[in-house]
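Q: Hi! New to this. If I give you a protein sequence and the SMILES for zinc ion, can you show me the bound structure?
A: Yes, paste them in.
Q: Okay, here:
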Amino acid sequence: MGLLSGMEKFGLSKFKNANVMEEVSEEVKPANIQVEEKKEPPFNEEDVLFDKHYTCPVCDYTFTTRSVRAGKVRLLNHDTDLRPIYGKMDVLKYDVISCEKCGYSALIRYFGKLTVKQSRAIKEAVGNSFSGISNKNRVFTYDDAISRYKLALLTAMVKNAKQSEKAYICLKLAWIYRGKLEGLDKNDPQRDEIYKEELECISNAYEGFLLALSNEPLPIAGMDENTLKYVLADLARRLKKYEESIKLLGQVIISKTTNDRLKKMALDMKDVLKQEVEENK
Ligand SMILES: [Zn+2]
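A: Thanks. Here is the predicted structure of the protein with zinc ion bound:
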């Protein structure tokens, strides 16, 4: 299945099989979830959300979308590829802003930063055939989030975004699939398919970040060189590219600019990696 499958429902079937990176034109232990005190009211995801206003830089339409109130959801832990794990809900579902009218979509950190040429390209390639998306759901499901991340990826492709932006969307979409997978029953028949989707996103993120590392100035997607190499090492591990992974980890470990915390994480990952290599022999 293509990374952008499902875009037909937005009138964008021409992108169904597009190649994302082509230009157009100790698994961290499960978080120590604290036992809720009996007096605390049950958590309701809707209570930490609010409607935030945005103006679309492509079509000037003003709209609202669901956003997470700062400081309302606690960060508990990270996965080995730095996926943030929050208590009680998955904040990542709300990280893409989508214009309801023309379909322009981007991660919050990249939203609105467009040249005239990019804006025109999006209008022509997406806006003209876009059939609309609603931001009105009170709470976004994982499937809502998946559609929005795919729209962000498609927008990034159309505007010829840097490899790093496309890679970062792929990485976060992989995290969305992982979040969806974690919420499914062990025997759910969708599991294999969702894990495949996660791996496809990881593969694109790995390829894109490697290109970005050799072609783009640092920081890349907010990461310095050592952090990005560490993330790449973990993505390589997840793709069973063990030689690449060990090489990248070695670079992180011997670098004089790696801080102690990252060095420890890299050493821990090296142990996990050795164990995996043994198991796969
Ligand atoms: Zn718009």
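A: Strands lie at 49-55, 62-68, 75-78, 84-86, 96-98, 105-107. Let me know if you'd like me to explain how to read the tokens.
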